UniProtKB/TrEMBL annotation:
SUPFAM superfamilies: Phosphoglycerate kinase. The lineage of its organism: Archaea, Methanobacteriati, Methanobacteriota, Stenosarchaea group, Halobacteria. Monomer. This is Phosphoglycerate kinase. Substrate binds at residues 21-23, 37, 60-63, 117, 157. Its EC number is 2.7.2.3. Pathway: Carbohydrate degradation; glycolysis; pyruvate from D-glyceraldehyde 3-phosphate: step 2/5.
Amino acid sequence: MPIETLDDLAVQGTTLGVRIDINSPLTDDGDLADDARLRAHLDTLSELLERDGRVAVLAHQGRPGGDQFRNLRPHADRLDELLDAPVEYSDATFSADARRAVENLGDGEAVVLENTRFYSEEYMQFPPERAGTTELVDGLVPVLDAFVNDAFAAAHRSQPSIVGFPTRIPSYAGRVMERELDVLGDIESTPEPRTYVVGGAKVPDSMAVVESVLERGLADDVLTTGVVGNVFLLADGTDLGDASADFVYEQGYWDEIDRAADLLEEYGDRIRLPVDVAVERDGERHELPVDSLAPREGEAAMDVGTETIDTYAGVVRDSGTVVLNGPAGVFEDETFARGTRELFETATAADYSIVGGGDTAAAIRKFGIDGFDHVSTGGGAALNMLTGEDLPAVEALRD
Ligand SMILES: Nc1ncnc2c1ncn2[C@@H]1O[C@H](COP(=O)(O)OP(=O)(O)O)[C@@H](O)[C@H]1O
Ligand SMILES: O=C(OP(=O)(O)O)[C@H](O)COP(=O)(O)O
């Protein structure tokens, strides 16, 4: 069944729940460090407001327990600056206060409701029917006429605010969702050979994708960087030192080492591991080859090393298609930004390049890199889509 879009929605005077993904890097003070994801949704939001809709924005920020798990006030303030319409902030998500804030909207006005993940069920995965009976959905449905899902970056999560509303009220894809589905829908026709560069810190997501693209023969090469690369190195028997291993353990990713070992056994010829890594020693970047690693106490692998960058860059340059998700190191710290900056720059040289992810997009903007064929708002979502997997958000809009 085709998905309905904003072209199919009579917007004027209707109250819309609009799920967007403005999950962004924050400063230590909780301010926005990058607003790329907010800007990405401006088309959808301004269109709905110009068409005299009443917009209740739903969004998440961070993960429970993480240092990026904060309220959405800075996001609301920034949207208020960026949009040509009044945007209020409500510190409630689905309570009577939230409903009041939504009911008080006039035509062409918006309110940003509080971080959906402040509510515990929102961080669980449910089948759509069950998601449609959660408190969040139940609480808001009485004050909404329709739902718009523009949160492509969270489309791989079967969470209440993503898949619940379409079981209850008419639902539509926003402009970001529509564009991403168009561009990413057809990976099998992109030029070969295809190289997937996976990095960043969301190891289970990356592992699932690596498994899928190798199994389906979509990837000719998988280049591992970031924490993902560290996990593969640990799986390969490299002693990365306690600091790197503790980091993986603290994130709860210990099982991923076994998974990486299985993947190396089955597809080792197509998976590349870093041959050197960078640690901080005496306040400076210090590179260590992995075959003679001697990290000292407290030294964690924070970036891929120069030899790895050069080898990977060669593979990337010769690729027909490069799909890239996740920074190669702790790019926020200039000492460890080299791997990310150089690999990302090289990726623009491939015949066809797709990059995605919140932090990935932030890194691209930080380093001023352009020339990618498509910069997706989603990281995990884009990769999932590129594996041919169904995205729960899209299935929910279809049903
Ligand atoms: N070796 C590393 N050790 C610790 N953190 C890392 C390392 N490499 C990358 N990171 C971190 O990964 C984070 C981004 O990961 P992720 O959220 O998976 O990316 P994206 O949002 O693009 O999908 C960044 O904050 C970066 O500092
Ligand atoms: O940042 C996101 O995904 P990404 O890191 O894959 O780009 C989305 O907001 C989804 O967040 P989640 O991975 O905590 O569910």
